[in-house]
TrEMBL record:
Keywords in alphabetical order: Cell membrane, Membrane, Transmembrane, Transmembrane helix
Subcellular location, principal: membrane
Protein name listed in UniProt: Membrane protein involved in the export of O-antigen and teichoic acid
Organism of provenance: Frankia torreyi
UniProt keyword Transcription regulation, yes or no: no
A Pfam family matched in the record: Polysacc_synt
Protein topology in the membrane: Multi-pass membrane protein
Amino acid sequence: MERDRGYLAGVRASAATSLTVTVVGAGMSVLLARLLGPAGRGAYAVVTSYALAAAAVGECGLTAAICFFVARDPRRAPDVVRTGGALLLALGAVVGVSGFFAASLVLPHDHAAATAFRVVFAAQPIIFVSACWVFALQATRLAMWNLTRAVQPLLHLAGIGVLAATVGLTLGATVACLLVSITVQAALAALLWRLDVPDRGRIRRREAHRLLRYGAGVFLSTLPYLLSTKLDILLLALLVEPAKVGYYAVAVSMSLVSQPICVAFGNVAMPRLARQGGAADADRTPTSSRRTAMIAVGASLACGIVVIGAMSALAPLVVPLVLGARYAPSVHLLWLLAPGAALLGCNRVTDDVLRGLDRALTVARCEGVGSVLTVVGLAVLVPVLGIEGAAIASSVAYTASFLLLFRAVLRAVDVSARTVPARAYGLLVARAAGMRRPMPLGGGR
């Protein structure tokens, strides 16, 4: 029970940080929309969307690999981080150069936006290398990892506020604030890592091989996930009128409301499982890994169902009040997305659980099936049902991915599906008994 408390305490801290980052991001989005206007806000969205997508794909799964191997074998952590940093620097340079020259193709008629695009991509090496230290902290010091995650958006928002109140805000100034906040985050992550692990380490060929092998599995699972979650919007933009895409986008945003809470279970479980799997002492048994995996999956599933259920019930009241009556069609779209949305956060957690158990390729296979179902479902249903068809296709694909991922987790921890209800009941009873147990008054450890 003590280990469960430690795990759940980490989940609470990570969920609180994710919620803070989400709220700051929402506030910043509203502020930028007001200060930059539709054209400036749109240009900034294009620049940052391409930069984030390029970073997510271009890092080739190395950040997850660094987190995994630092947690798996702390004695080799300095070499892992030094080698991973060198690999990420090289990948960041490639992505940065590619984006620099692609700016005129992406934004051919907007010189200011194209310049901002080039500046952001020129900074990609900094973004990539900072991720090395940030994800190493995820494996060793969860509180420091949460701190580095929160610093960047808070600094960015503060910088925008200062500029808006003094000299005024432009697209270039907004991008400059973004890069300054990322640089500060990188410096802070590097300092915290060096304080925790003074050894600089060395670049090792063996570590590079291990990082690239593990990262390849993560990379192969990231692409299908991005395809499953983004393809519906991209396809609808080509097939239906913009207003309907707007209704669908609002419904998708509401369906993701549970994500900051759910993914925290996976963020904490992934390095914990890697550490339990790599520990040599007798105290770290396979039972601890099984328990962590089952708590992570079960709790994230419960959170997803409760939060999406509440959102679905409140949507008819919230949508007209916040967005206006014209967005009423988004409500029934949310209801169609809800079954899959309730499982999507759990899918991300099971991805992390399987990666923590060194089964990244299993994730790729399961997510790949979901991507295929997404493509087929959109191709069949959108021409017939329009945006409703896209919602149904997405919900079916998320559900299929959940079933495959959940089955893979049960196999990985050697648990029979028939025993899951009894195990879940036992965990709930043990948790309830632990909450009722009186706390010691002092003295003992």
